Amino acid sequence: MSKPRHLSWENFRSTIWHEGQQRSHRIGRKPSVEVFGDAVNGRIGLLVQLDGNAEIPREIDRLIFINGRILRQSGRHFLELATGSEALQRQFYQFATAVADRILLEDMSPVAAAVAELKCFDELLAPRTLLSLERQIGLLGELVVLERLIGSLGTSGADAWTGPRGEPHDFRLGKHELEVKPSSGTRRLHRIHGLEQMFPSAGMKLSLVSVLLEPAGKAKGFSLVSQITKVRSLLSKDGPRLDRFAQSLSELGWRDLDSRHYARLWRLRRPIAAIQVGRDFPRLGRQAIA
Question: Which of 8, 14, 143, 147 is packed most tightly, with the most Cβ within 10 A?
Fold first, then answer.
């Protein structure tokens, strides 16, 4: 299949866009694909022949500056995508030619090609959202505990990390639950989230695990990135658990592309402490309030 011949934006403006006229440039014939300049109504657009009828997908229908509609001409159906925004004409033209390439070179359906390009634009322009320092410390504390569990139990220790799955506590091993509380403070002062966090699930025993961190400075330390790398190394020969670990990180807001932002070095201020949450443990719950 020959490569589609696109006009440069400058050539499109000089040859297709003429005040008071409607012109088009054909890019492909099977299927028919053309870009048009409608200087009468102030629009530029893409017109693509469909195999049959189709519906405008939600991804296009929700857009403000791109209008989509299905046209019927001479017994054939066409998908029309167009914009009436003068300020966005050049950007739309680049989008239209990219959609045309997917249709003519990758043999994608017109609707699928348009949705795929819109997704690419969304990902390209998506704002970067980084983990707050508090969330970094929280994740780092859980990974420190996870590393030790895997080291003690083997890769099956990764199954104990239940926090990312929406469970009330961070880890569950047999009949024991662990609630990990990291802090960068100098004392073991921890914030409790919710009235149920210091209460075990039915039939379980609960322990609070205190992880105190301090900046490593020029001393040897570990970062969020190095800790993730270490756990991945421990799981490297267990594909399913390695994939589950990656999914858990993603659900917690981690992205490898952002790793350069998480290079701060930490070290343990004190040894990890585990305190069993029994009847005499100071806690406030719904029953006490009632």
Answer: 143
Length of the chain: 290
What's the pLDDT score for residue 113? 94
- Ramachandran region of residue 108, left (φ > 0), alpha (ψ -120 to 50) or beta? beta
For 94-125, give one letter per residue: b (16+ CB within 10 A) or e: ebbbbbbbbbbeeebbbbebbbebbeeeeeee
Contact 44, 94 (CB under 8 A): no
Specify the amino acid at residue 29: R
271 burial (CB, 10 Å; 0-12 / 13-18 / 19+) is exposed
Q: Which residues of 46-60 are buried (b: 16+ CB within 10 A; e: fewer)?
A: bbbbbeeeeebeeeb
Residue 25: per-residue pLDDT: 95
Mean residue pLDDT across the chain? 92
How far, in Å, CA of 63 to CA of 117, rounded? 13
Side chain identity at residue 179, one-letter code: E
Give the mean pLDDT of 115-124. 87
Residue 17 has pLDDT above 80, yes or no: yes
pTM for the predicted model, two decimal places: 0.62
- The sign one gets for the Cα dihedral 164, 167, 169, 174 is negative
Copy the structure tokens of residue 197: 């966090």
pLDDT in tens, 174-210: 999 999 999 999 999 888 887 788 899 999 999 999 9
Per DSSP, 168 falls in state S
